[in-house]
Amino acid sequence: MLMQLTISGISQGAIYALIALSLTVVYRSTTIVNFGHGDFVMAGAFLSYVLVVLLGVAFIPAAMLAVVAMFLLGLAFSRGLIRPIRGGPHIGFALMCISAGYVFRGIARIVWGREVLPMPRVFEIEPIFIGDLIITGDAVFIISITAIMLVVFFGVLALTDIGKMVQAVYQSARGAQLIGINVDRFNDFTWGIGAALGAIGGILIAPISLLHPDLGASFLIKGFAAMTLGGFGSLYGAVLGALILGLSEQYAGAYINSALIDITAYLVIVLVLFLRPHGLFGRKTVVKV
Amino acid sequence: MMPTASQLRLRTILFWAVPLLLLALPLSTNSYVQFIANSIVIFSLVALGFNFVIGNLGQLAFANTALFGLGAYGSAILVNTFGLPWILSIPLAGLAGAAGGFLASAAALRGIRLYYLAIITLAFGELMRWLYVHGKSVTGGTDGMGVPAQSIFGVSLTDDHAKFYVFLVVAVLLFKSTLNLLRSRIGRSVMAVRENEVATASLGIPTARIIVFAFMWSGFVVGCAGALFALHTSYVFPESFGMLHLIVSFAMVLVGGLGSVIGSVLGAAALTILPEYLRSFPGMEELFFGLIVIAVLLALPDGLASLLRKLSPIFVERYYRE
Amino acid sequence: MTNLLEVEGLDVRFSGLHALRDVSLTLMPGQIMAVIGPNGAGKTTLFNAISGYVRPSAGSVRLRGHDVARLSPHSIAEHGIRRTFQNGGLFPALTVLENVLTGLHAQTEGSIIDVILGRKQALASEREMITNARALLALMQMEHMADTRAGDLSGGQQRIVEIVRTVASEPPVLLLDEPAVGLSPLARDQMMDIINRMAGEKGVGILLIEHAVELVMAGADRIMVMAAGQRIAEGTPAEIREDRAVLEAYLGHA
Lengths: 289, 322, 254
Prior knowledge:
By secondary structure, chain A is mostly helical. Chain A has helices spanning 2-30, 37-54, 59-82, 90-112, 137-159, 161-171, 173-178, 183-205, 215-230, 235-255, 260-275; strands spanning 128-130, 133-135. In chain A, helix 1 packs antiparallel against helix 8 (183-205), helix 2 (37-54) runs antiparallel to helix 3 and helix 3 (59-82) packs antiparallel against helix 8 (183-205). In chain C, strand 7, helix 7 and strand 8 (205-209) form a beta-alpha-beta unit. The chains are: A mainly alpha, B mainly alpha, C alpha/beta.
């Protein structure tokens, strides 16, 4: 039972990791928290649904198309809606992100009405049996894709020139500018990456969960809970926090009360912010006044 | 361009004259228009409370919708379960909202700010909604709660026209109180925290307490509005206090003008009348409000109030009373 | 005469960096003490430690005998230590008058309920503070700017308004962090005028971080020299001018 829950927890945690990571990537370089990110994730999932179900495209190409489309959308969002309001108060950015999210949500709802949509099985992966343990095909798929994405992501970050550039901007946007990095374009690119990563998370969860326009809200909270637990701004923290969240939900749901699965994320947020606001790996940001 | 002394006198006269004139409104409207007018009054209060935190204090707050719901449910429960006359439930709903505001912002006392505070208010808001849905025995769950017909001193309040008088009086009282607060050392300290919290502390002002106070006042105003809303719709259910309401509140405050009291009225009026036609089509409201906020952020970030200020200095706010 | 401000053995460490080492100083009422030293000497850290924005790892800060060292910044300010900020701490969206009024926050009477209900006592106190604030602005010949948005002022004017706001409550101790930076000679004179008035007429003890040597030599009663987080010299301007340790810190040789 414990192992079964652990597998589920890791599988859920993998999705949360993608969402938390995509939020962190944007936050690190722009200091903007995308409060509409859940809806970006939902948009990615819906795009893949449209391609697969309505246009009959095969899953893998559809997924790739959706990811690219979301990347471009993220880029356009940064260019067209974030850059123009740069001088204003931070609240403006938050509102812009939330509103974009609502636009996605509204469009999704208009097109799909009140239905809750099942995404058809994409391909059959044989479940793995280890003793009493059943690792479902979906879990295998989600965990392996996420693991690959994480390896690629952190690998690129640490080993390539682009990755070094990203690290430079993270350390100091001013300094990066001085050595010739176009921070504006970099930020657009970052938004694109964030949207794309989020879309992957949405696409991975689409086949196993029912799609509806309000999917985004719960994703947002999970992403925040993971980031808060791991420490805001920490990339590793986001992934670790996500895994811990996924596991906690499953354990709490099974051993304490099934209703807890829904609200574990909120409880994590409240607890962490009261007890250790900078989470596991974050920097101390408590204001001393 | 500050208002002159005579303009200030005119402003005071107008503040009281307009509601007095509005008292005649119910005599000339049909039920449908009256319902809209009632909605505008209630949402002006919602915008007023919300604006206090995101406009004057400058902190992102997602708990407002939940506090509005707290006021509405609080009033409905007091009326249904405890048999309290609705009118008495109004200040109690306000207190419930204030208590909620305290809980939502208590983290501020420990030094939490900005995004973390925003996230904690978001979590708090969602937790409250979860409670409405799952607290079936108390709140009626997803089915909601009805509010039975009310009367004050024998005068029936089932009619929208009758309700308007109560709504108007409550609104005027809350608006005046908020203006009094803003035009005092308290209002100045709230805005000082927004401008530069570190410098504010250096003047001996307890900034964390100011933040909590702002959330509590906002909660009080919005909680009272919730009680009004309960009678307005005669029915309270969780859906009214969800994400749609949140974006609507943001839109009202932004369209009206961040931090502007008159902006709260303008934003509420503009965004209550316009979407009437959108209600039938699912998704249109969200799309509409989302686009409105984006448009205002790009084209008129200081809202309609900024246009009014250009029109006459009488609309320029002074945060002191001489 | 009792010491107004007594800082003893103040020590500040930031993860690995020993920013302040055993710094002590004494300030009398009406005394102007300049704190000088090369960049990175720890002058602003000293101010931050005294005013509560940085927690000292050791030492005490006694205001009229009462140790305020580990209190929160707003408590320390309430006790009577006020300061200005290197990068300016004005409230841009508020007017000049409103800015100065925030400096008088603690003196203004009236609880929240009094304010909401518009009680006479609260309104009377508010009017009194406004009169005081206007008088202060008039002293600086700035009364015509009372209703100007602080953010619309020039840099130099902003600094003067910030000082006016800080001294409005006549605090016993004032910490001024590079108040004259970027000011025109005229504004600089105005600044020194305020400082001297505060010290001379109101008995305010003033600690001043300043780089402009002439200002320091002419305006200060005592000078404290810092380098690498430590106090390396303290005395009258004449004494400091002759001090070898000081010359070495600044010029690298005796």
